Amino acid sequence: MWPLIGLLLPVSAVCSDSHSLRYYDTVVSAPGSGLPEYSSVGYVDHRQIVNYNSESGRARPKVQWMEKMGDEFWKEQTQITKGSEAAFKYAVRAVMERFNQSGGFHSYQWMIGCVLRDDGGVTGYDQYGYDGREFMALDTQTWTYVPTMAQAQITADRWNSPEELWGERWKNYIENICIEDLKKYLENGREDLERRVRPQVKVSGQEKGDTVKLHCQVYGFHPRAVDVKWKNKEDEVHSYETTHVLPNPDGTYQIRVSAEVTPKDGDIYSCYVDHSSLEQPQYIVWEPEKSRVRIIAVVVAVVVVALLGIGGFMFYRRRKAGYKETGTSDTSSDSNNPANA
Questions:
Q1: Which residues, in sequence order, are bridge partners of residue 114?
Q2: 289: confidence class by pLDDT, cuts 50, 70, 90
């Protein structure tokens, strides 16, 4: 549902006390695809705070502390988003015509937001996407729209014209209205948003020939911003793959970073983790030799116990069989002895 978001947002971020307010609007051209025809979702620091879709027809709070905004606020949000819904349904049809598309499944997306940095500075963005690719974006240096597809040129020219100057309008929103809203939401949700939960870290390795696939699983941390990488001593291992930072049901996050390496004598591989809950970054060392020795020791112990058990059982059986044989011989001799008659 969110292919554009995957392109525009970083997989992970360096720890920071910056805060952001973001909105994602999506409209699809074909109802019945399993998605709402239109949806709008708002986030503060990656926590979903509001959701509206064409099926519910209402803007609803997604976290308890947003309920403090009151009924009038939510009525106003519903009316604003209903207006956006009508505009976006028209927009997706207009863009389809520019691509000479008369049917099929297509999506039109909008992402707008502001960031309040820890030094007090303000940044923001206003971007549009079509079918998972960037369509047009606002240049926040010149406050003019830049098309990234030829089909967006008409819209960019119109919005940049002296008669409309849409860039200046959204400049005011990003630098003033959005930031003021963000500060209000932060005040309501500060306890939740600014809590610090230390990450748990687990490292493992899969050996295959001369290479090893190293995995670093970092989980249970809050806030979302985290920096995770593999290092060989002090040198970063560049050939690695990483997942998105994913949410857990309890409001914390998780991420996995993997690297394929060919260990040499003297190499020391460790998972580097930096997070705002930590006084200093952690280095979790992967120790293959200890793991291998531990496994071998366990296997040897199991084998020894098994052999002792088998040996004891066989000794018991032999001793019991010898006892029965001796007992039977003595009885037979006594019964045939004339002295016993």
A1: 21, 124
A2: low
The angle at the Cα of 292, spanning 286 to 294, to the nearest 5 degrees, equals: 100
What is the β-pairing status of strands 60-61 and 133-139?
unpaired
Q: How many C-beta neighbours within 10 Å does residue 297 have?
A: 10
* 307 confidence band (pLDDT: 50, 70, 90): low
The backbone region for 73, taken as left when phi is positive above 0, alpha when psi lies in -120 to 50, beta otherwise, is alpha
| Ramachandran bin of 126, using left for φ above 0, alpha for ψ from -120 to 50, beta for the remaining angles | beta
- For the CA atoms of 29, 33, 39, 42, what is the dihedral angle to 10 degrees? -130
Token pair 């996407």 in the structure block, residue: 129
Question: Terminus-to-terminus CA distance in the chain, angstroms?
Answer: 103
Cα distances (Å, whole numbers) of residue 31 to 104, 110, 133, 317: 10, 19, 21, 77
Q: How many CA atoms lie within 13 A of 250 on its CB side?
A: 8
Asked if pLDDT for residue 13 goes beyond 70, the answer is no
Question: Distance between CA 134 and CA 211 in Å, rounded?
Answer: 38
Distance CA 184, CA 181 (A): 5
What's the length of the chain? 341
Report the pLDDT averaged over residues 39-52. Answer: 94
